[in-house]
């Protein structure tokens, strides 16, 4: 859904003034029309009777609608029904690791990074902060009477698919490869989003994508998955079941693919039997966007949109992300579906809106007075930094870390060192003041000389902004003889620079990035845009004009990067002309001979078509070295080299249209670092300087060479808006690294099963038989922990009993630190084949030097030792002998004890 974004913007300021206390606008006609008093209870229809249940009110409201109105309300962009007091509503909102696509919001670490914290209470804190910001934004949108996309309360997160294969580009959105970790993180996230009020929901969370969905991205609209029943029930379904039955998640999103021949969007077994009958799900199901169309267009299960829409509704899909459900009107007339079936689905949707308080006075709804100022609040910013710090995984350390606070000269090199895109991952909001790795190191080491060189592009063959400096204001002026610096910017509400501009101002530099929520958030943050100057989030254009003032004579390299089209003219002649759509921030260069002291008329034109927006104007002055050589020069005089590389969601992500060596459609075909980065790393290591590798990534990387040749490797994931500070906190020892791997890191030589093979055999720590590069649950520390006195309160229990497990964990080092205590269970004398072992307990604890703590777990055989009996088509527990394993990773087991289940 999302086109890739890149952030190298100028704006580093938050909104200083809250926009006021937000109000929820009532949707009843009597309220909306400003009546002095509501009609008497006797004259009120049931749907307006606040004393009745949400279900009764929703059913009555649906009964007042025409068939055409019902069909329209079952599409994500639901129009208003003024005669019934129903406001327009778009169900589509994103909040994977912060409120996304709705302007400025706190950007926490990407989901995979949050999972790497192994800190369930922290996940709940993060989700609560996200829901605070979501409510604050909703209140403000309501106050303004705005009902557009990304302005509502129904959030399409979390993604709890199992990250079964490291090649999947969307694995970054998940909580990793383990069902138990996914369950615990998922429950914490959902409860933080939805709140704990007994009457109203704070937000609606959505568990997605149901089910058996994890790539390949290029095939997701048409492939048919045939998992074994054991894999289905032991790997792919447990997290969904737990979120339904324990977290009471209000929504489930269906997947694009088929499962055993049935489209997941319209599967009688998945949606009807398993979700509703077996698990008792009472909420609503929304399709993934365009998935109803896939039923007839790609899966070809039926021939028409009417039949596809009828099939989806009859089998449990209440809401269509798309427009296909407009065909339900004809489907009813053609006898493909009964109107009563539509009523049942729509009642669930209206009940959800009522439970969110959309039909009640603001005074009755908690969170209606959450002010806009909570967005990007200092408290949330601090939480983002703490979450990022906890997500850092130290993969290797030969003693070079932590860096000395007295270090004098640091070379920061690499394509993700000063790239905000390396912080935010995908599905994110607009960070007000993002701290890159370079900036974080500079702030942490003010005493040191910190030299930066990008060195290489992220991947080979990509038209990637090269990290050239922006053309600064001192080299630009709006017109001849003007004392002001910068260029005159004209902002248009169309893509062809026509008509009267909505906004005219002088911009000191051209270095902008806007998420798809609203570019005007950045303008408003500077206090320069009035309501009548609003620029739309899509389909706009900008013209900058003035003069370019080169300081010296010689050959310049001028670079314009944009998402989408960009043109540059000097003295009326085009020097850069790339006016087509781009799926990411794409750079085009021109070599120009310019005379120092001469004023050149310059015009830069930019158009944004849809989704993400960004544009920058940069240059390399005469005499500057090529990036690769500049990086080696920077390293030669340094005491230490910090190389920041890896990936960004410009190359790994969702159904991408661009391919590079090692990448295909957002997925990966090569688990190694891109070749451009490997070459530079080897050259840097050959200088003899100590090289610390900091990896940004949403998935596992085969960094065998780095593990063998470099003294330290730190995995930062996509760490969010404060990621640079968090990296520096760990590099300089302000924080003890304690993140753990939620996925297995395989060696480059490992031959994995076919990507489109959904059997779990040979995948993840639970079924992989080989030796990983880094195992699941792995992560180093700056201190040392020991384990002792593992005790079980029984050595024999019944399958419905509980086993209490305790162990002593001691900090034997000289500094405080966090340890993630992990409990695994393994069958050692059971008749049925099982996984290698299963994670069934995690606790992240903080210990001072010399401190010892008792850590306890409870094991319930009925849930923790169950397997799926295919003959009985039910879960079962084997009698036999099992082993409790306690340790610091799946491969670092420090203590074991056996017990039997009778």
From TrEMBL:
A GO BP entry is: arabinan catabolic process
Alphabetized Gene3D superfamilies for the sequence: Glycoside hydrolase family 3 C-terminal domain, Glycoside hydrolase, family 3, N-terminal domain, Immunoglobulins
A Pfam family the protein falls into = PA14
Which interval of the chain is the signal sequence? 1-32
Q: Which PROSITE patterns match?
A: PA14 (PS51820)
At the top level, the lineage of the source is: Bacteria
UniProt keyword list: Glycosidase, Hydrolase, Signal
Please give the Gene Ontology molecular function terms for this protein: alpha-L-arabinofuranosidase activity; beta-glucosidase activity; xylan 1,4-beta-xylosidase activity
Cite the PA14 domain residue spans from the record. 482-635
Kindly indicate whether the keyword Signal belongs to this entry.
yes
The record's comment on protein family reads: Belongs to the glycosyl hydrolase 3 family.
For this protein, the record's PANTHER family field holds: BETA-D-XYLOSIDASE 5-RELATED (PTHR42721:SF3), SUGAR HYDROLASE-RELATED (PTHR42721)
The protein depicted here goes by the name Beta-D-glucoside glucohydrolase
């Amino acid at each position: 859904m999302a086109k890739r974004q890149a952030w190298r913007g100028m704006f580093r300021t938050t909104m200083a003034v809250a926009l006021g206390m937000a109000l929820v606008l009532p949707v009843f006609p009597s309220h909306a029309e400003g009546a002095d008093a509501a009609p008497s209870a006797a004259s009120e229809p049931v749907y307006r009777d606040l004393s009745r249940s949400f279900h009764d009110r929703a059913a009555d409201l649906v009964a007042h609608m025409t068939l055409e109105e019902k069909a329209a309300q079952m599409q994500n962009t639901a129009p208003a029904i003024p005669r019934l007091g129903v406001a327009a509503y778009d169900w589509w909102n994103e909040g994977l690791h912060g409120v996304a696509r709705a302007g400025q919001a706190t950007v926490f670490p990407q989901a995979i990074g949050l999972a790497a914290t192994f800190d369930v209470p922290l996940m709940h804190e993060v989700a609560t902060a996200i829901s605070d910001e979501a409510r604050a934004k909703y209140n403000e949108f309501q106050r303004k009477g705005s009902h557009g996309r990304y302005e509502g309360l129904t959030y399409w997160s979390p993604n709890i698919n199992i990250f079964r294969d490291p090649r999947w580009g969307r694995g970054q959105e998940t909580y990793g490869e383990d069902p138990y970790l996914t369950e615990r993180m998922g429950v914490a996230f959902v409860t933080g989003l939805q709140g704990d009020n007994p009457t109203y929901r704070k937000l609606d969370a959505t568990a997605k994508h149901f089910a058996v969905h994890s790539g390949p991205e290029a095939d997701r609209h048409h492939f048919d998955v045939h998992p074994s029943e054991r894999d289905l029930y032991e790997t792919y379904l447990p997290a969904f079941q737990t979120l339904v039955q324990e977290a009471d998640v209000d929504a489930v999103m269906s997947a694009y693919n088929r499962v055993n021949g049935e489209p997941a969007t319209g599967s009688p077994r998945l949606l009807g039997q398993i979700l509703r009958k077996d698990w008792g799900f009472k909420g609503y199901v929304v399709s993934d966007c365009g998935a109803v169309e896939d039923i007839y267009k790609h899966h070809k299960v039926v021939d028409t949109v009417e039949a596809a829409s009828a099939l989806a509704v009859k089998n449990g899909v209440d809401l269509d992300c798309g427009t296909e459900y407009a065909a339900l009107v004809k489907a009813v007339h053609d006898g493909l579906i009964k109107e009563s079936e539509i009523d049942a689905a729509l009642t669930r949707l209206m009940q959800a809106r009522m439970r969110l308080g959309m039909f009640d006075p603001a005074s009755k709804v908690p969170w209606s007075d959450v002010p806009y100022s909570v967005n990007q609040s200092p408290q949330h910013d601090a939480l983002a930094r703490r979450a990022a710090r906890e997500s850092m995984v130290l993969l290797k350390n030969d003693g070079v870390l932590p860096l000395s606070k007295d270090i004098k000269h640091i070379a920061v090199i690499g394509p993700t060192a000063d790239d905000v895109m390396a912080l935010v991952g995908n599905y994110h909001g607009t960070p007000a003041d993002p701290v890159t790795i370079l900036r974080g190191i500079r702030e942490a080491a003010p005493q040191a000389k910190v030299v930066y060189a990008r060195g290489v592009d992220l991947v080979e063959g990509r038209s990637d902004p090269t990290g050239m400096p922006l053309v600064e204001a001192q080299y630009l002026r709006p017109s001849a003889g003007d004392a002001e610096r910068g260029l005159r910017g004209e902002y248009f509400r169309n893509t062809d620079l026509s008509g009267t501009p909505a906004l005219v101002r002088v911009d000191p530099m051209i270095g902008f990035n806007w998420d798809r929520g609203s570019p005007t958030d950045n303008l408003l943050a500077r206090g320069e845009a009035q309501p009548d100057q609003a620029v739309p989030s899509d389909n706009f254009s900008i013209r900058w004009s003035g003069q370019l003032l080169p300081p010296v004579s010689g050959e310049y390299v001028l670079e314009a990067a944009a998402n989408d089209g960009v043109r540059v003219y000097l003295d009326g002649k085009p020097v850069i002309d790339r006016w087509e759509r781009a799926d990411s921030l794409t750079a085009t260069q021109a070599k120009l001979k310019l005379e120092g002291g001469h004023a050149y008329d310059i015009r830069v034109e930019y158009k944004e078509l849809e989704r993400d927006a960004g544009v920058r104007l940069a240059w390399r002055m005469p005499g500057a070295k090529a990036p690769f050589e500049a990086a080696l020069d920077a390293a030669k005089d340094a005491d230490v080299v910090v190389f920041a590389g890896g990936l960004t969601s410009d190359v790994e992500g969702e159904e991408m249209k661009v391919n590079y060596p090692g990448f295909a459609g957002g997925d990966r075909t090569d688990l190694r670092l891109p070749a451009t980065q490997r070459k530079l790393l080897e050259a840097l290591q050959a200088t003899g300087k100590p090289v610390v590798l900091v990896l940004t990534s949403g998935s596992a990387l085969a960094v065998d060479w780095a593990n063998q040749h470099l003294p330290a490797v730190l995995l930062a994931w996509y760490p969010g808006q404060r990621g640079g500070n968090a990296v520096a906190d760990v590099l300089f020892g302000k924080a003890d690294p304690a993140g753990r791997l939620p996925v297995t890191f395989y060696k480059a030589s490992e031959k994995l099963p076919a990507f489109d093979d959904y059997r779990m055999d040979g995948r993840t720590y639970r079924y992989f038989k080989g030796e990983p590069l880094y195992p699941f649950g792995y992560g180093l520390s700056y201190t040392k922990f020991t384990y002792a006195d593992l005790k079980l309160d029984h050595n024999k229990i019944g399958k419905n009993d509980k086993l209490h497990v305790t162990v002593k964990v001691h900090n034997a080092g000289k500094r405080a630190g966090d340890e993630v205590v992990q409990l695994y269970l393994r069958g050692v004398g059971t008749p049925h084949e099982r996984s290698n072992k299963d994670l069934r307990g995690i606790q992240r604890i903080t210990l001072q030097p010399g401190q010892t703590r008792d850590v306890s777990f409870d094991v319930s055989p009925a849930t923790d030792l169950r397997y799926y009996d295919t003959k009985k088509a039910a879960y079962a527990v084997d009698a036999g002998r099992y082993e409790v394993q306690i340790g610091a990773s799946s491969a670092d087991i420090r203590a074991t004890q056996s017990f039997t289940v009778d």
